[in-house]
Each structure stands twice: as C-alpha cells, then as structure tokens.
Write a structure and sequence with these properties.
Strand 12 and strand 13 form a beta hairpin. This protein is about 40% helix and about 20% strand. It is an alpha/beta fold and about 325 residues long. Strands 6-10-11-1-12-13 form a 6-stranded mixed sheet, with helices on both faces. A 4-stranded antiparallel sheet has the order 2-3-4-5, with helices on one face. Strands 7-8-9 form a 3-stranded antiparallel sheet.
C-alpha cells in the first residue's frame, strides 16, 4: 500500500495509528496524551483483518490520565503492550537511524526487542536481568550508606551473574540469526560487507566480586550486559562513527528486512518517508523486495516515488484518506 499526500496532511499519523493498534504503543512518543486529538478527552483506533484464515478485530482506546485499553476479538488484554505478543509490526521512521548513529543504549534496546520477537520464549530475559541489576544496585547503595553489610549483596551478585550470562548468550543467538539475511539485504541495497558484532564478556560472580569496592563507591554495577554495545559495520567501518547518513539508513532498512524474513508470520511493515533519500536504483530494489513480503505501508509525497505499481493507493488530504 502506498500512502501519498503533501507534507503535513496526516500520512505519518495514519502509519502511527497502525503501529499503536498492533503494538500498543507509538513509535514516536511514550506520552499517550500526545496521541489524543487536541481538545478531546479520549481517542480510539479500531482495525479489522485476517491472520491466515482467522479474522482479527483489534481496538485500542486512549483516555487522558488513564491506562490504554486494548481488545483483541472483543477480549480485553492485560495491557496494550500485550498486542506485541499477538501481532508483528516493524516500523521505519527517519528517527530510527538512532539504532545505528545513536549511543549504545539505543542499540541494546533495539536488539533486545528483536530478541523478543525472534525468540518469544526468551522475551523476558532483558527485563529479568534489569530487575536483578536494580536490586543489586539498591543493595550496593545500602552498603555505601552503611545501612547493610556485604553479605546482603551475595544473592544479588549471583543472580546478576546468572541472568547476565543468559542475556549475553541470547543476544549472541539473536545476532547470529540476523547476520546472514542482514548482510544479503544490505548488499542488495548497495551496502557491502555489512556485519554485526557483539564482543561481550558474560558477567561472573568472580568478576563482579573483583569490582566490588568500585561498585560500592559508585553505588552501581560496573560490568554486565547493561553496558554492552552492538557493532553495526560495513567492512572495517563502524557505521556509527564512519558511516554517512545514507549508509546508516541502508543499515536500518537491512536490519528490518532481515528480521521480517526470520519471523514465523510475515509482519506488517510500516515505512515512513523511506524513499525520499534513496536513489532510483535503491528505491526499485526496496520496492521489489517488500512486494514479496507481508503487508506493507509506505508513505511518500508523490505517487512517482514508488517505482512499481502499488497494490493499493491511498491519498491523504487534510486528515482524511481515500482509496
């Protein structure tokens, strides 16, 4: 599906609403109040469709100063974010370049979300580790303030070591699963020798205890996967430091396409303003690649931006859409 219209008429809002309705949150903001029309007390998004032969009806209701409410086929879900376990959606927006050009935290968060989608049984690994880490850090601060002794740290040191080692292993498995498809899609788009790197050392009880004096002094744990980084490179070049914005864009697109190929059910692909900075050759490569994948929505200012005929054309004018 190609969504066209002048700048500022609501194309991105349409894409954002699809993301909220299928994932329970906005790719743009975590402030739900920003998703409700000015002057209105609430907002609602409703979608209907099919997964294979199964009909799906989804709705997300937002109210000011209240939690979102999500329903799937009429049944209320425990949280709106529970939609992520039911429906797969991958999104590209211009600010997604932070996955490559941003700091380590942005990459950790991105690849941990990929981990959860590729390996649902391990989806809780990052959160479990961070919960144990928070407990150890709290215990470190109590020792620092002489409200507790070092023996209270031991159980949390063991737990952080156990869960941290498991998270490192699962991140490695995630990157290994992505590596081949990522390199292929990047090469197809003109980014040669693309690769992912993760040189992390799993935390152990011995390593954590070796740094205990420093950790107590700072009140925080100084080693572990909460500080790791993922390398996104083209050949010997770290694209964060030595990649152009165009190359960073190609890397993010290649990651999304690689993940889409690995998911057991084709995801909904949402591409906002993805064509504007691609040359004609790369536009055609991307268009033909997504044409053979799951359902895709691409926004653009002009019909001519897409070099192949879309299955459906939607024109947006002043907040309303027509096919």
């Amino acid at each position: 599906m190609l969504v066209v219209g002048p700048t500022g008429v609501g194309k991105t809002n349409l894409l954002e609403s699809l993301h909220v309705a299928t994932q329970g949150f906005s790719p743009r903001t975590r402030q739900d109040a920003q998703l409700i029309r000015f002057g209105e007390p609430a907002g609602r998004i409703a979608l209907g469709g099919y997964r294979a032969e199964t009909k799906l009806d989804v709705s997300v209701t937002l109210r000011r100063d209240q939690a979102k409410e999500a329903r799937l086929n009429g049944a209320r879900l425990p949280s709106a974010e529970s939609l992520r376990r039911e429906l797969s959606t991958l999104v590209f927006t211009p600010d997604r370049l932070t996955v490559v050009k941003g700091g380590p935290a942005a990459r950790r968060a991105y690849f941990d979300r990929v981990l959860a989608r590729l390996f649902p049984a391990r989806a809780g690994a990052p959160q479990d580790y961070l919960a144990a880490l928070a407990q150890r850090n709290a215990a470190l601060r109590r020792v620092q303030l002489r409200l507790s002794d070092h023996t209270a740290l031991a159980p949390w040191t063991e737990r952080v070591a156990e869960l941290g080692a498991a998270l490192v292993e699962q991140r490695r498995a995630t990157l290994a699963a992505l590596a081949h498809a990522f390199a292929e899609r990047a090469d197809e788009l003109g980014l040669p020798d693309a690769r992912l790197g993760y040189e992390a050392e799993p935390p152990t009880v011995a390593l954590l205890e070796a740094g205990l004096a420093r950790d107590v002094e700072r009140g925080t744990t100084g080693i572990g996967p909460h500080l790791d980084d993922v390398l996104v490179a083209s050949g010997a070049r770290d694209l964060r430091r030595f990649g152009s914005q165009g190359e960073q864009r190609l890397a993010v697109l290649s990651l999304l396409l690689a993940e889409a190929e690995l998911l057991p059910t084709p995801p909904l692909l949402l591409f906002d303003d993805v064509l504007s900075e691609l040359d004609p050759g790369r536009r055609e490569v991307l268009a033909r690649r997504v044409a053979g994948m799951g359902q895709t929505m691409i926004t653009a200012t002009h019909r001519s931006a897409l070099p192949i005929a879309p299955a459906q054309l939607v024109e947006v004018e002043h907040g309303s859409a027509r096919t």
